[in-house]
């Protein structure tokens, strides 16, 4: 039967959009679903401040009366203005092992993009770097994280068959936590603290950090991430949302803040205990009982992995050892909490300053993901 492309416009269609991947990956031990409430909020113009400067249209692909694929076509006008492109992005893309389904979905995105004056296809990407981005091209035998895409290998074959080519790659590292702080790190942390008048602060409550520091974190991200592929500056509305969504649930011991002598935030890192397996168990749904798995995952003493969601160092301090100051504090915390491994989030392959942060630790580049482009 012919493949039918349907715009997602009703609650029932959105439910089908979200639940499709649960069936597609039901036998895959490495796939981590996105929390369904996050997907709904991200794709809702009423709940996602990115719609202040973006537009989006989710689609379903129907074959033989069943959902065979899904995709979101979106345009981030701020990113396009920043980078001088006219891109329509595709994200949240999944499909059965059938090239014609993949082609129909991408054709729908291209057609929607042309209707809005776009000239290039780009993806997989979301509205911002806080959405899942980059198709997995290496690491299919490793469990995904809560923040990253997992896809079957045939996705890449179909993308290339469609004419998509590499725009950028991201790397992910698995770091083995050493038994003690490397001597060079311990020595360097003291030297740079004295040389630059730096101090490391750990806030005691989420209300305190929301009041004094939370917005500073995201303003620092805007400054540090500006040169990185596809980044668009976070708006005040987005920052308010991320502060309210994430800070109240953060483990503040895993959120070191580095200040200079003028009390300006110059470096930070945000980490959380891995909740990938917990999200697997609750199948991406917190209600009615999924939150129990999530809570157990955050509190479990058997959890041996911590995820590095982000790290940001003010440009003028990059390459000067701030990571040593933060890691010298964090390693004893890892030991106390029983973490044996630290998994990084996506790092651009040409972001050498970031990639070099791990050279003093046992580590492996165990995953790689790619964003593709094609002229329309």
Protein architecture, described:
The protein is of the alpha+beta class and 376 residues long. It folds into 2 domains: 4-170, Aminopeptidase, CATH 3.40.630; 175-366, Aminopeptidase, CATH 3.40.630. Helix content is 36%, strand content 26%. It is built from 13 helices and 14 strands. The protein has helices at 11-24, 36-42, 77-83, 99-115, 154-162, 183-196, 206-212, 214-225, 236-246, 276-281, 290-299, 322-337, 352-355, and strands spanning 4-7, 54-63, 66-76, 87-95, 120-123, 135-138, 165-176, 199-201, 257-259, 265-273, 305-313, 341-344, 347-348, 363-375. Strands 1, 2, 3, 4, 5, 6, 7, 8, 9, 10, 11, 12, 13 and 14 form a 14-stranded mixed β-sheet that branches. Helix 4 links the parallel strand 4 and strand 5 (120-123). Helix 6 crosses helix 12 (322-337). The protein is globular, with a radius of gyration of 21 Å. Mean pLDDT is 90; it is low at 287-293.
Taken in chain order, the helices and strands follow as: EHHEEHEHEEHEHEHHHEEHHEHEEHE
The helix count comes to 13
Mean pLDDT: 90
Distance linking N and C termini: 27 Å
Rg for CA atoms: 21 Å
How does the overall form come out from the CA principal axes?
A: globular
The total strand number stands at 14
Output the CATH topology of the largest domain.
Aminopeptidase
Strand content: 25-35%
Tell me what the CATH architecture of the largest domain is: 3-Layer(aba) Sandwich
């Amino acid at each position: 039967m012919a493949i039918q492309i349907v715009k997602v416009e009703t609650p029932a269609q959105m439910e089908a959009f979200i639940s499709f991947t649960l069936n597609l990956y039901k036998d895959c031990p490495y796939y981590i679903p996105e929390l369904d409430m996050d997907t709904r909020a991200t794709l809702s113009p009423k709940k996602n401040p990115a719609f202040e400067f973006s537009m989006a249209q989710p689609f379903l692909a129907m074959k033989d009366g069943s959902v065979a694929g899904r995709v979101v076509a979106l345009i981030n006008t701020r990113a396009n203005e920043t980078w001088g492109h006219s891109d329509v992005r595709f994200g949240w893309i999944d499909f059965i092992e059938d090239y014609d389904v993949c082609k129909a979905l991408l054709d729908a995105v291209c057609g929607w993009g042309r209707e809005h004056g776009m000239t290039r296809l780009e993806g997989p990407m979301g509205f911002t770097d806080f959405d899942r981005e980059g198709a997995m091209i290496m690491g299919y035998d490793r469990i995904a994280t809560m923040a990253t895409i997992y896809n079957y290998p045939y996705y890449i074959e179909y993308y290339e068959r469609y004419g998509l080519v590499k725009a950028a790659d991201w790397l992910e590292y698995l770091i083995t936590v050493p038994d003690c702080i490397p001597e060079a790190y311990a020595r360097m942390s003291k030297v740079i603290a004295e040389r630059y008048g730096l101090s490391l602060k750990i806030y005691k409550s989420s209300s305190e950090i929301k009041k004094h520091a939370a917005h500073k974190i995201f303003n620092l991200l805007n400054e540090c991430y500006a040169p990185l592929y596809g980044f668009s500056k976070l708006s005040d509305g987005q920052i308010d949302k991320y502060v309210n969504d994430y800070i109240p649930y953060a483990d503040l011991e895993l959120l070191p803040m580095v200040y200079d002598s003028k009390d300006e935030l110059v470096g930070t890192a945000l980490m959380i205990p891995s909740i990938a397996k917990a999200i697997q168990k609750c199948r991406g749904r917190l209600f009615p009982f999924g939150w129990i798995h999530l809570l157990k995952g955050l509190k479990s003493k058997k959890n041996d992995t911590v995820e590095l969601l982000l790290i940001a160092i003010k440009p003028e301090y990059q390459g000067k050892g701030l990571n040593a100051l933060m890691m010298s504090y964090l390693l004893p915390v890892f030991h106390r909490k029983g973490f044996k491994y630290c998994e990084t989030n996506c790092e651009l392959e040409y972001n050498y300053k970031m990639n070099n942060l791990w050279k003093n630790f046992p580590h492996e580049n165990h995953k790689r993901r790619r964003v593709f482009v094609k002229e329309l």
